[in-house]
């Protein structure tokens, strides 16, 4: 099972394989341009086509080029910590708010909010040194022909004996599953969170494997009846150019449980950044209604700026009540979550 800690050698190898450049479309590398005044250097664990569109638009609109090194979140966190006395990047961009806690503990994030950010992003989705970009819900997918969504009102529903041998999920090494269980530890306490994890394991249809799209495919093929998955994957499948993926969403529905787990993509300016003003401009750009709408349409996430319209796919899910998480601290429980996964046999 992959763990939070990574060796320096692993970090270096992982990052060397995943570099790219935004703005001009040039090929990038690990060596950022720190001398030019018209750049923003970004470490990102977001690997989405829409982000490349944003980088290009930002350069066109501002004249500031975005340089990007992509990697896995944990690897990038370790790199940021190692470089904190002389950071290479200006902005840290990632998909899971559970990483805020270790970054704050390391003291590597700069105070970077602004009046424009405060006007654009609700208070519960930002802090003095971070700003939520978009959210995604981790929900319960189900076979429309076999399961009544009324039976999926809470996350405890997946532990009901009626679903024994019918639950599908990805592995415990998934940051999405770790964040979900960490949120339960934070809100419910360790004992109840462990009971939930054990109940889920008891209902597994098969050993955890694959990504979230694979869980939806497994429901459609009859391998199981319910699954845990992120809503934005379903939205991407619904709008896919592949007719087979679109057919899967005809068979698979989404249930949003009470106190739905919402995790955030977020951005932070790094302490000691070489291009702080440009970095703040980039965060403000990400918070704008136009870019929020683009992210929601292209990637299936939820916009955080209330002025950004909600796409039709996300509207179709109706309203739901999210968990009341302190995004700056719930990541403290991630090590507890990984230990619980080991103890209950969630591979």
Automatic annotation (TrEMBL):
Question: Which Gene3D superfamilies does the annotation name?
Answer: Periplasmic binding protein-like II
Tell me a Gene Ontology molecular-function term this record carries.
metal ion binding
Quick check: keyword Electron transport in the entry?
A: no
Q: What residues does Fe cation bind to?
A: 47, 232-233
Keywords from UniProt, A to Z, are: Ion transport, Iron, Iron transport, Metal-binding, Signal, Transport
Cellular component annotations (GO), alphabetically ordered: outer membrane-bounded periplasmic space
Its family?
Belongs to the bacterial solute-binding protein 1 family.
This chain's protein is named Extracellular solute-binding protein
Organism taxonomic ancestry: Bacteria, Bacillati, Actinomycetota, Actinomycetes, Mycobacteriales
